[in-house]
Each structure stands twice: as structure tokens, then as C-alpha cells.
Amino acid sequence: MKKIDMHAHFFPRITREEAAALDADNAPWLAVDSDGESGHIMAGDRRFRPVYRALWDPALRIEEMDRNGLDMQIVCATPIMFGYGYDASAAATWARRMNDLALEHCAYRPQRLKALAQVPLQDLDLACIEASRARESGHVGVQIGNHLGPHDLDDERLVRFLVHCANNDIPVLVHPWDMMTDGRMKKWMLPWLVSMPAETQLGILSLILSGAFERIPETLKLCFAHGGGGFAFLLGRAENAWHCRDIVRQDCPQPPSHYLKRFSVDSAVFDDRSLRLLVEVMGADHVMLGSDYPFPLGEQEIGKLVANSPNLDETDRARILAGNAMRFFGLTG
């Protein structure tokens, strides 16, 4: 059965000198160990995350795709690459460079590797220009963070960016980043385990409860990573609040469940009970295979959860493993 992993990351092998064009002190770059097999994503002098060669080497990526039986993988920036906190002009130049490098990465096997672009989201006009340029140059969509500083997805500038994507057939993957924390979640990867799902759910509900979906064309192809965070499990809570509290529904003309067909989610939930709930809530036509490869918190045997789930019939299994992604991103083959 065909398999397309639509949520995987890459990080180009850029030096600190190259990163200095964005910011000499904090911009991300890649420090590769002497063995060439492992290294660290760096933020200036600070080690941000240990990584291994598949993150930057498309040859190893293809080998591991073969081992997982993957026909195609869609790669996107590691979120530290976004550059939202920098001067917009510098961030636009950075995004263009990272997007060109993403296409170079995919050129190793262009029929099996596709890319999502990043954009300088802090400037609406520049973000729209780069999203359109990237789409024309070969990217199959864009990836954005779930917020811009203190502004959630219901911010008018971000809504206008989503409208631009809807009007120009640019699919959008929303990925959590810069996770909420006040210092309490300082061990055991708790920002990733607690804040990352919460950020994702926050992005979804900010679009629903603000009424933003009423202003965005229904043609927008929108997907949230990490199974939509806690959204599926907590939809009942939001639904109850909408019916019981006028302050919840004051900007939202329909209950939250009304908007379920306006977006998709990936399948990165790692547990068959969670996958069953996700499919029941979202519908099998709005869930796509996503692994978060090649990071340790991603699915280690890509597609195994969906392929082995006893709760899916073969039609729904085929949709989630590949069919939905082909439709969402306009893929052929």
C-alpha cells in the first residue's frame, strides 16, 4: 500500500558564518561531528538539539525511507529555522535561502522528496511574496508556526496570509514552536510533551472561536501537525463551553464541531486508541500520515501505527497512508 509521510523535517548543512547573515549571536546553524554521522543544531554558541545525518543528507533519508516502505516524504524546516524574531527583510532573505536549500535537498530524488517552504511571517507582504515564489519554484506548500510572538492564528495579519494561501492554492502545515513555558517545565522534555500539543490545540481553537474561519475561504488546505495536539480529546470541552457560555461563542457563529472539515491533522499520535479517536472526530479523509522524522519523538517505524490499526478498514487506511496527502498537496504518481 502506498505511503506518503507529509510531516518530516530537514536542516541544511549551513555554517555559523552563513547563519551570521541573519544573526551572528543566535541564528541556527549545523555543527557536524568529525565522523560526519551526527552533530548538533546550534543557536549561536548554544547547543539546541543533537541530530544525525538523515537530517541533512538526502541519500541516508532515502535509505531510511526504503526501510520504512515510504514512497514519498514531504520535508519542512526544523522550526528553529523560522526566524520570526528578526528584521523582516533579513528574515525574507534567510527564508529564500533555506527554501532554495530545501529544493536542493529534494533534487536528490525529486519524485520521492518534496518540500514545504518557510516564510518571513512577521511581514505579511514579504510572507505572501515568498509563499508564492516558493510555490512556483517547486514547493508543494508552506509550513508556518502556530503563533507569531504574542499573536495567535486569529491575528488579522496571519488570517490575511491564510487567505492569500487559499486564493493561490498553497497548502499550509501549521507546526507548534517556541512552546509556552514559564520555567516550570524544565526537565524530561516536558515542553515537547505538554506545551507542544497545547500550542497546536491553541492554534486550532484560535481560528474557530475567533470567527477567523468565517473570513477564510473554504478552499484553504490547512493541516495541523502532531495530531492536532489535544484538540480531538478536548473537543467536547470546547463544544460544551460554546453552548453554555456566551463569552465563548461571542465571535463564533457555529459550535466548534461545525468547523471540523476546514482542516486536517497528521497521524503522529503514537497510540492506537488515540488514532481511533482522532479518526472518529476528524474523519478518515482529514488525517494524513505524519512522522516528525528524523527526531527521537517521531514515529520510529513510519506508518506502522496506521498500517496495523485494527480500527481502520482498507479504504480508510489507504486514505490516511497516502490518498489524503495526494489530494491535499496535489501530488501525482
UniProtKB/TrEMBL annotation:
One of its GO terms (cellular component) is cytosol. The keyword Coiled coil does not apply. One of its GO terms (biological process) is secondary metabolic process. Pathway: Secondary metabolite metabolism; quinolate metabolism. GO terms for molecular function: aminocarboxymuconate-semialdehyde decarboxylase activity; hydrolase activity; metal ion binding. Pfam families: Amidohydro_2. Keywords: Decarboxylase, Lyase, Metal-binding, Plasmid, Zinc. InterPro entries: ACMSD (IPR032465), Amidohydro-rel (IPR006680), Metal_Hydrolase (IPR032466). Residues 4-331 form the Amidohydrolase-related domain. It is an enzyme of class 4 (lyase). The keyword Iron does not apply. Its EC number is 4.1.1.45. Monomer. Belongs to the metallo-dependent hydrolases superfamily. ACMSD family. This is 2-amino-3-carboxymuconate-6-semialdehyde decarboxylase.
